[in-house]
Structures are given as C-alpha cells and as structure tokens.
Amino acid sequence: MGVVQLPCKEDYFVDKDDPDSDFFEHYRRIKLSYSMFRYLWRNFHTSFQPTDLDDIVNDGADEADDSFFDDETVDEQEEHLEDVEQEDEVEMPHWYHKIQGFVDHINAVSKRLCKNPGSYIFDFFPDGRLATTTIAGSVARLIDCLPRKDELQYVVAMDNYFTTPRVITETRQKNVGIVGTARNRRGWWAQEYKDIEDQRFNTLYCWHHQDNYLVCRWIDNNVVNMVTTIHTGDETIPRARRKPRQTSTNRNHVRLVWGNDPKVTVDIPGMIDDYNHWMGGVDKADQYISYYRPNLRCRRSWMPIFLHCLDIMRVNGFLVVKSSDKRLDHKSFIISSTKILNDRAVAYESGVTRSKTAVPDPPGSGQKKKRRRMSHTDPQLPLCRFEGNPSDHRHEISSTQKRCIYCSFLLAKAKKEGREDLPKVREPSRCCSYCRVNLCHEHFDVFHSTT
Predict the structure, then answer these.
(1) Residue 216 backbone phi and psi in degrees, to 5
(2) What is the pLDDT of residue 39?
(3) Which stretch is the leader sequence (predicted)?
C-alpha cells in the first residue's frame, strides 16, 4: 500500500519564485512560463471572441463562479480538501474538483455561444468509466441545460451507451422525446423479441414496452436495434441508398435490391431517417474537432480535458463567426485566433495593456497595400474590426480622404436588394487607427460592433 499525490497544474512547474526556473518542465522549448499558463488556464475562453459577442460572453461570465480561480479561494479549497483527506471521507480525487470547477466556468460562457443555430456542442462535463450508475443522471443534467425547454419540444438522439430503461423513463418525465440505437441489457427485452431470426433486408419488427415506448429491430447491412418514444413504427420515407460493399452477411440482399445499379430508392423507417438526421450534428461536431486537433501525448490527467475545452470553444467560435462571414475558412480562423491569443498572453505576462506589443500588426503591414473593393454581389466587412483590443481602435485623422467603408457597405446592400432610396456615401478624412479604413463619425462605432 502506498500514497500517491494526484497531479495538479502547480506540480508541473518548478518554483515560480525562482527567476532561473520559471518555465514549464515539459515545454522548455517553447518557453511557456508559469504566469502565461495561468493566464491561459483562467482566461482563454474569452481571448479570441469577436467584439460583437461581448454582451453574450459577459452574460455568461457573470454566471460563472470566477472566484473559483482566485488564488485565495483555491488555497482555501486545498486546505479544506486536505482536512477531509485526513478523515478518509474524500469521494473524488483532488484534481477532479479543480477540473469540475474549470468545466463549470467554461460552460457558463459556451452555453451562450452554442445557442447559435450552427453550433453543435452545448454542454459537457467530466465522467469516468467507473461511474457506471450515473448515465441517467448525466443525461438528465444535460437536458436541464437546454434553453427554453418549457417553450420548445426537444428530441434527443442517442447511441446505445445512453439508451437504458432508466434514461428513457426519466427523459419522458421531462417531456423530451428520445430516439436512438439500443443494446440488449439484462432483463429488458422480451423473450419473443430476442427469438426473432428474420434476416430479410429492410424488415422492421416493433415491440411496445409497458412503459409506453417502442423497441424496434430493423435489418440493414446488419441487425439494428432502435428505441423511440416519438414514433409508431408505421412511418416510412423514400431515401436514395448507395450500393454497399458486399460482405458475408449482406451478400444476398445487396444482389437482390441493387443488382448492377449504384444507387436505388428504398422506403426506410421514419425513426431510422430521423436518427440519421439528428445524429449528423454529433458526427459533424466530431469532424470539425478532428480537423485541427492537437496531436499530443498527454500523461497529465487535466491536459486532455483542457485541450478538449479549447477544441469546443474553437469549433463553436468558428461557427458563430462563419454565420456572418460565409467566406471564412476554418484554418484562417484558427491562425487569427491563435495570434490574438498569443498577443494578449504576452501583454498579460508583461503587465502591458495598451502598448504596441499587445497589438497585432495591422493587416498588410510591410507589404504593398491592396486596393479594397466592396463586392456588389456579396458585400462583406473586413474581419480586422474584431482583432486587437477595443482600445486599439481609435478614430484619428487620416492622411487621405476616401469613401467611408461602412457607407459603401450599406450602398452595396441596398443595390443588391434592389432598393430605390440609395444611402449617401460620405468621404471622411478620418480612419480607424488599427483597421486603416476610412470611417465617418456616424459609422465608427457601428462598424466595430455589427456582425
């Protein structure tokens, strides 16, 4: 028997008061200092959000328990946990409480961002493989987080890990529909359901459970077990299906249904079509995350959760910004947000807030300036209006007199919509000190806040 101290973030830094060893042991090459790491740990969730989302982020941050990350509060929690450890009453390890508080703080902000129709990740929390009895509680917690639950009718799509009898019962009690794949669990399915051996393609068997939900067996390339509370089993919908690769289990019906055709129309059950449609959001969220996920081997327990928080905020931030700028690609967004995050970390570490070191270089600096043209088919405003600190964008006198970029934007929109009353375009001699575009006095604030 032995005693092991579980890791926390301070364990991977040497003495922070020692000026000769103020660097992260495992990342000496990139020189990530302890203070910079604490900055990322505490503030990364608002570092690369565009300024037009300030109200959303601030509302979320107000609900977060920011005092959790204060040094005095953390020290008090550590002393409390040490006292409890001496009494042998600790149910969760020390690092779990820190991670749980960290995740709660992130969720308070991310919930606002994820209410955007294009967002997929809504809420998350750490769960362990040993907590096998908490599946229903986990689902109930996520359902309680849904916005406007009393006004809207939600349907939750799940895979077979979550579709337990208790989950289905509690979900119905919360007036939320459920559809998902299912697995055979002890004492759940009736014996006559288990005895079905029909292997004909696209056949559906339904069993009405006494708790008022439906368990179904459908044959596709293999047996698919489904559970639903919103279908009757009679719904069908025609869908074009590509010819699957032949295997030992589907060889007969592939030849019978597809023959030599690469695609045929098949009437599939409505529950299957709904499940494929709703689970597509989960698959797409995983796809977005996997594109630029950090490929790091982590031995520290908190680092994968920390990186996953970054991934979720990255994906949701990209989807929110992309909703206003259709031409923005994922890679450009990551490069821009990373640059802003690093610049602010440097400013935080050096104690500088308004110095030029905290401001990214203006777009096109050091290069030949390109002429800006406002598209009449798809008018867009430059993304530089969201970069840097708000204090870096000042209305100052310009060396040249040019057309106001926001007036040109309104004119292009009016022409695109076919309006007859076209707005007047001013030609001010003042510009934004950061964006380097001419702006009239009336449109300076609107330009830096509109989406």
Answers:
(1) -130, 150
(2) 58
(3) none
Chain Cα centroid distance, residue 288: 9
Of 250-259, 277-286, 427-436, the one with minimum mean pLDDT is 277-286
188, 165 contact by CB (below 8 A): yes
Q: What are phi and psi of 205, to 5 degrees?
A: -115, 135
Q: How many whole angstroms separate alpha carbon 98 and alpha carbon 160?
A: 31
Q: List, in order, residues 6 or more apart from 48 with CB less than 8 Å away.
A: 317, 336, 337, 338, 340, 341
What count of other Cβ atoms lies within 10 Å of the Cβ of residue 95?
Answer: 19
| Alpha-helix runs per DSSP H in 174-264 | 191-194, 251-257
Residue-wise pLDDT for 372-399, tens only, equals 677 777 888 888 888 878 888 888 888 7
Per DSSP (E only), the strands in 190-300 are: 204-208, 214-219, 223-228, 236-242, 263-269
DSSP three-state, residue 144: helix
Cα atoms in the Cβ-side hemisphere of radius 13 Å centred on 62: 7
Alpha-carbon distances, residue 123 vs 113, 136, 169, 288, 433 (angstroms): 11, 16, 22, 16, 39
How far, in whole angstroms, is CA 188 from its chain's centroid?
Answer: 35
Domain range annotation of the chain = 7-126+301-358, 129-291, 369-447
**What is the Cα–Cα distance from 38 to 17, expressed in whole angstroms?**
14
Query: Are 248 and 258 spatial neighbours (Cβ–Cβ below 8 Å)?
Result: no
The string of pLDDT tens digits covering residues 308-323 is 878 888 888 888 888 7
Cα separation, 31 vs 349, whole angstroms: 13
Question: Quick one: pLDDT band at residue 29, thresholds 50, 70, 90?
Answer: very low
Question: How many other CB atoms are there within 10 angstroms of residue 62's CB atom?
Answer: 10
Strand ranges (DSSP E) for 63-213? 155-158, 177-181, 204-208
Packed helices 303-322 and 270-291: angle between N→C axes, nearest 10 degrees: 110
Cβ–Cβ under 8 Å, residues 292 and 265: no
Strands 236-242 and 204-208: unpaired
What would the two tokens of residue 52 be?
């037009």
Would you list the DSSP string of 328-375? --HHHHHHHHHHHHHHHHHHHHHT-SSSGGGSPPPTTTTSPPPPP---
Contacts 24+ apart (CB under 8 A), 151-159: 153/177, 155/179, 155/230, 155/274, 155/278, 156/180, 157/274, 157/275, 157/278, 157/279, 157/282, 159/279
Mind listing the pLDDT tens digit for each residue in 150-197? 888 888 888 888 888 888 988 888 889 999 998 888 778 888 888 888
Alpha-carbon gap, residue 210 to 275, rounded angstroms:
23
Structure tokens at 393: 């964008």
